[in-house]
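Here is one chain, start to finish.
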Amino acid sequence: MTIISSLFRGKQTAEEILEPTPMTKLCRRVFKNHSFLIGALILIVIITIAVLAPFIAPHDPYDQDLARRLINPFWHDKKTADLHVLGTDKVGRDYLSRVIYGAQISLLIGFLTVLISGVIGTSLGVIAGYFGGRVDMVVNFIINTRLAMPVFLVAMAAVVAFGASIHVVIMVLGLFLWDRFAVVMRSITMQARDLDYVKAARAIGCSTPYIIIREIFPNVLSSLTVVATVEMANAILLEAALSFLGFGVQAPTPSWGLMLNEGREYMFFSPWLLALPGTGLFLLVLAINLFGDGLRDVTLERER
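Its structure:
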């Protein structure tokens, strides 16, 4: 019996040694998820272009040259490829440089908006989900009040009242896009507060801030990241729509939504003025959505 049991223990040890590590399992899940890989690849390329914009942009995006206005891109006129690869806009600004810097503006607005709304929504959601009772009722009332107000119309009214600028757009979107964070965090926190490790921390006398920060928050972080990607794409689209209507980023800032607005009067004669910023906006939002969708699948599979 001793020899058989020792052999059995040896077999178990060998299986444990051959079992892949958690990091290996995570890498396998990531590389099997095509949405995550495609979204991450496109997103990395766009972020790299935005960060390196001062070094890779061939011209200053604000420099105007009326003598070179509405120059065609290289596929229409190869002679202009040396100076302006993607042509120029209606006041002679290099379009490639403006498209590159437009990625900077969209990413900046998307990131800062999610940062502001994420802090507000996560705080309200975690507090409501953990304490429940009257606190939950008050937070639910605040969430319902926010949901009763259409974001786009309120954003337009706020921009008219305080003036149109990139700072106003970021603050308005940040203060009105937190509801999804609050709803998701409230639901997940209500589930987490009744788990054994939270009860154990409460039983040994841990303070409420310690339990929320050290026990609950790390376990809802994956869901928070997924919500952040969805809201970032939503914020970028809302900014582009506001800029297109003239209520967002103002000229001469190279915003993709503003570039669409400036190019719409030439859509039949110079359609690339719409196609180029529209393609950039499409790729960025697609990449964020694919990344968030893949991240959700990877984290859910890990939790299972």
